[in-house]
Amino acid sequence: MKYIAFAPWYILIYWMVNTYTVAVEIVPTIRQIIRGKDAGVWKSPTRSTEATGKREGEDSDE
User: Which DSSP letter does residue 54 get?
Assistant: First the structure.
């Protein structure tokens, strides 16, 4: 109950930061999309067998 006074401030600041972020990034993002630079597309990094801890050919259903 001691944090109830801070809840409205948290929500207000969260939405202000969110709005600012969208306002700043929307124009460059649209420009990249129009130019065809794959804006907003996640490119997965290459994975090695060392990162998963499994040897090649090993099944994950064990």
Answer: -
pLDDT at residue 61 in the model: 55
DSSP, collapsed to helix, strand or coil, labels residue 4 as coil
Assigned token pair, 42: 């996640």
Torsion, Cα of 13, 19, 25, 30 (10° steps): 160
| DSSP state letters, 30-52 | HHHHHHTS-TT---PPP--HHHH
Q: How confident is the model at residue 43 (pLDDT cuts 50, 70, 90)?
A: confident
Cα(28)–Cα(43) distance, integer angstroms: 19
32 C-beta neighbours (distance < 10 Å), count: 13
Q: 3-class DSSP state for residue 26?
A: helix
